[in-house]
Specification:
- Helices cover 47% and strands 13% of the residues.
- It has helices spanning 13-24, 31-40, 44-55, 61-72, 90-103, 117-125, 165-179, 181-188, 204-212; strands spanning 2-6, 28-30, 81-84, 109-114, 127-129, 136-138, 192-196.
- The strands form 2 sheets. It has a 5-stranded parallel sheet, sandwiched between helices.
- 32% of the residues are buried.
- The structure holds adenosine monophosphate.
- Residues 9, 31-32, 35, 52-53, 56-59, 64, 85-86, 88, 92, 162, 171 line the site of adenosine monophosphate.
């Protein structure tokens, strides 16, 4: 199963990706997480990526394309993958096409997770995450039991640097300029399916199954 998830930041792509990965037993490849890990380890890639990420801009295509090419070459991705946050520009979509052609594979689905800007801004500005275990909270809809602390590992929760309002606005502009055009690219090929990003969590697995099986 090879799936690409498209949609604005904060639309719920990551949640959908994890569910689909679990349903089909294939790895979820999340470029944002890979880049944040590189920043945390201060690798050469991380040091270059940090400035772009802090401003809400895309990290240059060549860097991200190499990162993803290496990851797709790992054995666990041979039988499928869920790409979350990639491709994000026409150059990245071309690189993915080349990879697929070279390996004689094709995408099974391109899933568009849609959500309006207002809901995205609310979701991202109130998002808090645990730097240790990665658990995600929302100050109103999914607050931690103890204010500011992770329910699972009692670590102090943090706000992502790029979840501040001015950076969120820039990330949404960049999405419209660079990533949204990919929807028409995949639409022309009849590969797009759409799901709303604000479905209740307990309804999401069944809804994803329906959409991916063509009964959405
Ligand atoms: P995300 O967690 O997907 O919202 O990504 C956070 C940030 O990582 C983005 O604002 C970009 O700076 C960078 N990033 C993630 N994925 C990509 C990508 N495919 N191409 C370029 N930059 C990316």
């Amino acid at each position: 199963m090879r799936v690409v998830l498209l949609g604005p930041p904060g639309s719920g792509k990551g949640t959908c990706a994890k569910i689909i990965g679990g349903l089909y037993g294939v790895p979820v490849i999340t470029t944002g997480d890979m880049l944040r890990a590189a920043v945390a380890r201060a690798t050469p890639l991380g040091r270059t990526a940090k400035g772009y990420m802090d401003r809400g801009e895309l990290v240059p295509d060549d860097l991200v394309n190499s990162l993803v090419a290496e990851r797709l070459a790992e054995p666990d991705a041979a039988n499928g993958f869920i790409l979350d946050g990639y491709p994000r520009s026409p150059k990245q979509a071309e690189a993915l096409e080349k990879h697929l052609q070279k390996t004689g594979k094709r995408l099974d689905h391109v899933l568009h997770v849609e959500l309006e800007d207002e809901a995205i801004i609310d979701r991202l500005s109130k998002r808090r995450s645990c730097p240790r275990c990665g658990a995600i909270y929302h100050l109103e809809n999914k607050p931690p039991r103890t204010n500011g602390m992770c329910d699972t590992c009692a670590t102090a929760l943090v706000q992502r640097d790029d979840d501040r309002p001015e950076v969120i606005r820039r990330r949404l502009e960049v999405y419209r300029e660079k990533t949204r055009p990919l929807l028409s690219f995949y639409e022309r090929r009849g590969e797009i399916k759409t799901i709303r990003g604000d479905l209740p969590l307990d309804e999401l697995p069944a809804a994803l199954r329906r959409v991916l099986n063509g009964r959405g």
